[in-house]
Amino acid sequence: MDVNCTVITGYHGTSSNYAESIEKHGLDPDKTHTRPDHWLGQGVYFFEDSDLAKWWACDISGKKYNQGSYPVIYQAQIQAPREEVLNLDNYKEYDLFLNRILEMQNEIECDAKNRMPVFSPEQQRAVYFDYYKKMYHISVIMYTFSKDCAKYGTFRTGEDLAQQKKLEKALNIAYHEKQICVSQKKCIKDLKVWYNGEDEVI
Predict the structure, then answer these.
(1) CB of 176 within 8 A of CB of 52?
(2) What's the pTM value of the predicted model, to 2 decimals?
(3) Closest by Cα among 129, 141, 138, 137 to 179
(4) Helix (H, G, I), strand (E, B), or coil: what is residue 201?
(5) CB-based contacts of 160: which residues, under 8 Å, 6+ apart?
(6) Coil, strand, or helix at residue 35?
(7) What tens digit of pLDDT does each residue of 71-88 get?
(8) Residue 190: left (phi > 0), alpha (psi -120 to 50), or beta?
(9) Residue numbers of the chain with a pLDDT score lower than 50
């Protein structure tokens, strides 16, 4: 195996409504729905944990707009040259990313003369990541996000939920989920169905 290549096994959870397109075109970042608030910019998203991919697939398959569908999970090998991968869990890569984005932001503010575009935090996040990918030829971004509550955890409400959040804050702990955003189709290899919810439909 090429030591200058990053290889990750990823799991993409989706609804069966998209299965025909995926069978025809594969998982193609250019065919994904463009969203202004993607966590790591535009692309195809994978979980490193197959259980989280299954939770996501079951969750979206239950939405009204996916009525009558069932969950499907695809497994793939994500492969990219190391220089095309941004691992924000690595402090050195994270620091370099921050330095470059801060420099870019300062340049824009100097040139803008009070004409800076106004983004919501979610939109700003997606725009910055997409800009970074384009400027530095990044094909894969990965990061482990932290959440004080998650749908795949124990469901709590009211005082129980408040106590959970208070405890997590005191202990400085959280749910963690690693997400991998792939923006180039060439990086998605050996795609196969890992789980088909239709087999469980009675």
Answers:
(1) no
(2) 0.89
(3) 141
(4) coil
(5) none
(6) coil
(7) 999 999 999 999 999 999
(8) left
(9) 201-202
